Fold these 3 entries.
Entry 1:
Amino acid sequence: MGLISFLGFTLLVAGYAWWKTRGTDEKSADGYYLGGRSLGALTIAGSLLLTNLSAEQIVGLNGQAFSEGILVMAWETLAAIAMVITAVYFLPKYMHKGITTIPEFIEERFDENTKAILSVLFLIAFSIVLLPTILYSGSLAFSTMFDLPTLLGMSEGAVIWLCVWTIGVIGIIYAIFGGLKAVAVSDLVNAVGLLIGGLLIPYFGLKMIGDGSVGAGLNELWTENQDKFDVTGDVTSSIPVGTIFTGMMIAQMYYWGTNQAILQRVFGAKSLKEGQKGMMLAAFVKFLIPVIVVLPGIIAWHLFEGDLSSADKAYPELVKEVLPPALVGFFAAVLFGAVLSSFNSLLNSSATLFGFDLYKKFFNRDASEHKAVKAGKLFGVVVAIIAMIIAPFIANAPAGLFDYIQQALGSLSVPILAVVLVGIVTKKVPAIGAKIVLIAGVIMYVCTIFMRPSYQATALAEADANGITDAAQLAIIKAEAFPHFLHIMGILFVVNVIIMLIVGAIKPKTDIYVPKQTEAIDTTPWKYAYIVGALIVLLVLSTYLIF
């Protein structure tokens, strides 16, 4: 029954996506990369949520909630604030220029070599960090939910390999041959399914805890797990409370304000107003998402009494435990859609970055639009194969899945956000300043990652010499030996901005940058953007006051 509902829903979404996109010209850049600039607010909101909310988010964040509790909701609730800032500040500046990619904006502001460096950084992030984690987390979820090792008579590792390559091949077909509109349309259907299915997990979980009563279950969960409902993480947690004011917002602003895979959905809007409305709607839903990506982790902690071989298995084990068999199939189909969405969204963006930003510069300057799109599609297949090879090895990552993603992305998010922000705010900082930061920024961050273990080892050796053996004390000493990676991100962001400003003061740009204006779309802003944005920010702040 579960398998039938899985196949039925999956085929329904694929059929609907084909029907809705059959008239789009996928051979043109606008048609393939931006869905013909025809996306409405609802489609944009659904696509934004599904691009972001995939198995690595659901499995990884619930795994962190299983270990640490509600404090990890900062990754979701603070995202809503970053989305509001993007909608009211960044988006008008981008869409007035009629750009297709963020590197295209960088080329206009600095030069084409700076754009090429930025495009390469994005592609590294997609192929080595994001795509492999999406494939691995989705495969882990399906393997656990359906107990595939037992069903197929294979080892857990072999099943992960099988799932990774199956999802990867289907994702290639969707993204490379369907273009953005196929991705965005299927996202909208899957977004609705994911919200419904995602809410069913805590519903049935709380009913199980409360012997049939959701209210009783919530009361018992709250009463018996008070330590899990505290948002103020200490120095040993994955999100110490101070990091909310440093690197946390840097990571959020990079992701929602400069990340090509996210913004490509909004650049496909039929107008600035629709883009802003879509992003605001997604921000409001994002504020509610902790019910799906955090609460189930705490429910799993209570039901399994904290006894699982891996925190990242908390969510799939909970789904298997609380959902009726027929609904397990439906939810697996929705989760499969979410995995495909994030995977093929990144593939589509990879094809865009290569075909639009790199192919014409380094390979064929005289290439037609059709040829550039074809080259982008071929490159997307290569990126997908690299990701499928890397994905199974993520099981060996020392940190939790979600923590691993954020730490790895820190090397790219800090310099990229610094360059984009300085590029928007100033007019005299030259291209050399941006190039220095894009290269040196990555190197500085990577150096801190390699420095941390040695500092921690030295601190623990000193503690041992002083006779300190208490585990809690040692954890604090280890955490305080070197700044948290989010603090490092905050510090390096300021350093990167200062470097660019100093270069601008010493060697200012001789030809003053004058922003272009486009007539490709209507750039009239949504008149309620500031009011709705302020209400969403207030909702987020009130949540922190409550907890």
Note: The chain is about 75% helix and 0% strand.
Entry 2:
Amino acid sequence: MLTASQIIEKYIEFFEKRGHTRISNSPLIPQNDPTTLFTSSGMQPLVPFFLGEEHPQGKKLVNVQNCFRAQDIDEVGDNRHTTFFRMLGNWSLGDYFKKEQINWYWEFLTKAIGLSPEKLYVSVFEGYKNIPRDNESEEIWTEILKKEGFSPKEKIYFYGADKNWWSRAGLPEAMPKGEPGGPDSEVFYDFGTVHDKKFGEECNPNCQCGRFLEIGNSVFMEYQKTEDGFKPLPNKNVDFGGGLERLLAAIENQADIFKTSLFSPIVSEIEKTTGKSYKENVKAIRIIVDHLIASVFISGSGVTPSNKEQGYVLRRLLRRAIRYGKQLGATEIFTAKIASAIIDNYSDSDPQIIDSKKTIMELFTEEEKKFNQVIQEGLKVSKDIISNLTPIEPEKYSKLMQDPDKSELFRNIYRGKNTNLIKEIDLPKSAISGATISGPQAFDLYQSSGFPIEMVIELAQDQRLLVDIESFEKKLKKHQEQSRIGGAKKFQGGLADHSDKTVMGHTATHLLHQALRDVLGDKVFQTGSNITSERIRFDFSYDRKLTDEEILEVEEIVNEKIEQNLSVHFEIMTLSKAKEIGAIGLFDEKYENDVKIYFVGDYSKEFCGGPHVEFTGKLKRFKIIKQENIGHGQRRIYASVGAL
């Protein structure tokens, strides 16, 4: 049976034989991208090429990309969702289109990796407003399925834009002007498990009951959003993405991806560490596995826990994993031990992670020690809450706790669904009220002290108290909705804002980067950026506050280069050539691919995807607004450009 690394090899080989060039993976932490914290898909770095720019390595590309999706954190816990995953991708930039893509992917699934055609189902775009139904894809699938001896009507499903349309912004109406998108066709694997009717009377490929699993999505990127609707892109493009972890689940016919050969060794290590079985603690162990894998790869990219940006996400992942570990009974520092197992398990497909093993384990240990102190503070807060409540009488509470599902029991008390039980044990409303940890109190313990609701329930049980879960869940839902709205643009990926001021700021970061190196030394490297039309934010490696004199010197250098009106252009060159000329950037040395280097006169040479102004004079003036420490040897500068 194929391993994860063997699937990668077969996929790359399959498309290389069909004229594709393997492109190097983009860093998990994007550089020079002001709107995203993480690389969340293989296509994210390729947006300029979908819009018509010529790719230096041709029109047919393939790779496997490490991805992280922060918006999926709250989804983890079922049998399929993960925040970190490897995405297999192949692209056509105006070369082949639907017929080749659909036939090739079917061939890869059924011939190259041996999936049974009987287990495969497909979905097609049914149309949306003025965007027509995808009859061409239906015809291609019909021909394939008939040759295999299947009835197309039983295998092809049509869905609207909410399921079979892809853009970084989601639905067509949510797409900003200039954004590319298009209909897609997905392939699903049928595990044949029994349908759970709580997800609907009839099962279908997009049902969430667990029977079907999406294993590949061919996006036909052929439209661009305009003020009046949509127009055709310069080229008809193909953007395919398929999750490696899901393909492995299909190959092993394992409906629970956490039971596949990729995850099971990590699950076993957690079982040994906590003394608890996966079977009886499915959700908690899934969360620990996913969050620690994601944390390994994020910290392996140079991110450290903090209260901002990528560091905040890393801290949230680690602390959530630690919470669930404590809930399972882990009494000692355990995350470093699990991290070691993760690194060993991923070393065949991601060997570069081994070099960071010692650093990652030390970082996990330090963060877990810090969080243990936070938990102790949370226990103090919970004691203050509990001290103002009146426990329910032991005999009555014991009868109440006979219900095995404590969360549902507590929830129903505040829905008025336990009327008979409450009457039976003679528990008046005043007693319930006096023994209740309120929803806002539970949410404060969750938000400020990191206590999951399960931990709050356990604390309540120890003191013969109740928890208003109904109110807690409403407050949590409102918080999550606000977070999603606020984070939608941040995590969608790509340069969403191409305004003149943002492009000016983007170019200014190249001058700022080199000026900082001139003043502070060559050990300074960019670690992140966020550029809007209002301001520049630039993160870099440095272990002390810059003096006023150093700030002034950096400003003067940048403004001198602006006044010189240097030309800005890019050149395509080999990786070795880019290193030879001293270009700044993170280069993936796994493949000797061509890279794109932007030059600002003969002053700055830096790996970047654009866009930029043509001459530095357009920046007018550069001003550093403030600096701040963001921890672990990193600093942040805020600046502005334009008519100051």
Note: Residues 500-641 form a domain with the Threonyl-tRNA Synthetase; Chain A, domain 2 fold (CATH 3.30.980.10).
Entry 3:
Amino acid sequence: MLENWEAWYTLGTVVLLMVALMSNRVGTDTAMIGAATMLLVIGILDPMHAALSFAHPAVLTIAALFVVASGLVETGAVNMIAGLVMGRPKSLVDAQVRMFIPVAVMSAVLNNTPIVAMYLSIIDDWAKKLRVSPSKLFMPLSFAAILGGACTLIGTSSNIAIAELYKDYAIQQGVDVPTTARLFWLITPIGLPTAVLGLVFIVLFGKRLLPVRREARSGEIDPRCYEVEMEVQADSPIVGKSIEAAGLRALPGLFLAEIERGGSSLPAVAPEEILRAGDRLIFVGVVESVVDLQKIRGLVPATNQVGKVEGDRRTRSMVEAVVSHTSPLVRKTVRESKFRTAYNAAIIAVHRNGQRIHKKIGDIVLRPGDTLLLDTHAGFVEAFRNSDHFYLLSAVGGARPIRYERAWLAIGIMFMVLALLVLPIGVVTARINAAIGVDILPREIPTVGASFLGAMLMVVTRCSSGTIARQSINWQVLLTIGGALAIGYAMVESGAADMVAHALLGVIGETGPRVLLGAVFVLTGLFSLVITNKAAAVLMFPIAVAAAVERGYHIEPFIVGVMAAAACAFMTPLAVPTNLMVAGPGGYRFTDFFRLGFPLTVIAAIVTLVIAPLVYPFSG
């Protein structure tokens, strides 16, 4: 055992990594970097390979594609494309079908996180108009994005990471390096039928498997409504006016629930009730109407924390923030958390799965999934975008203007990137080189090159500004993948990957390659439950390759198996960011994802086991 101490130390580090992530006490990126550091200080991971892991083509490609996606979002191209398809649904099934098409297609070529973020409000509105529980639509929204992302190379960051590792392996082994076009479609024979069957399954059986966690609304109030206390100031022009004369009954999606006056409560507010200075008005309604309330002179949030937020009042904005399960705010009252001091932001309302919270803001005990409506400085979203304290941050006030006049330009740039990745560019460049007699043009443009070209053009053409482009990059994702790549390299160099592969082969015995492929799929899926799908894909790659090589099989079907299992991570809200994004607004419980996610995972596994060996033979 002492002879293999490096392998055992590496495996022990991976086990500690999983324990840390399962505890929900540290962020994924922090845990990954911490594990890589443990391997670095002991000498198993050398500094050069540690540094190169964070500058790996997979990491750079994903960063560039975040910028490309920002250009499509900033110009309204994503909304424009969806608007042509989505229309106005007439039933739950119609809504699901109309939603699936644009979300799945766009997720195949864009990062799915901004897509889901943009359509949360649209789907929320659909649920209200159709009078169905929003929990019947939010999870299908996330799963449609996941299934669409599993169809191409750039649909999900785990696919990009695996493809780059495959290229590295081919170079090291001195075999033919797969072309960019081949890698782009490598997962498609499995991902596309999985997506089609998965979406059909959701349409047919989702109504029974999806829970009703929030009741359907009649259309009067938006599902994500807030209870907001506003105070009438002494110099307000509405003092002495009736509720109706002050215009407080005409705001859409909002109603005045009660008035607190001199220690007493008026729960049934008549339209002729006269407003007095110092009245506390308790409104319930949508965030847009809350913004309108802020514009009424002399009507201010009742909390005194708003005036203590630092920064120019003219540049302040409103932000919605969803509390994460790892946030230090959880299980503390707003007052105990010292929220305003810690974040330079004041909580003016809390939304919790459609429930009214009958407490003062300072006395509310925060829970994971609570959506906070904040009055804060203009840089709050940028400052805490990658913080693990919040699942999702969304600016409400002072939104940037959409550059619709550049939408088609952004779409053109996206199609150019796709053309460089998909088309056989080498045939064209070879003919040009032959015509001019000089071998000057490359045989193909690598994935990272095409992605950076698209990102640069998005900024140069002002589809996305430099500031927005930088802010659009999810550094937590990049650090997670970089750390996982470093750990994966250490697993290969230390012999830990071979050790795990040998143990896996010992468990399955002298069975056929399909059993091994199934084992690889299951193991990758289990890893995805606890260490996110991106990290699971990178860590399983060397294990799957080592197992295939030991048995003398071609590695491609097993690489595709890792891709498929990592991409189709449905069963917990922790596996992929989009699941986390819909968990709170949909009011889902942890086990709800398993009810629908497990059969979808089974579908993905069956498709992989049936089709992968046909397209990518085990031998021959």
Note: The first strand starts at residue 226 and ends at 232.
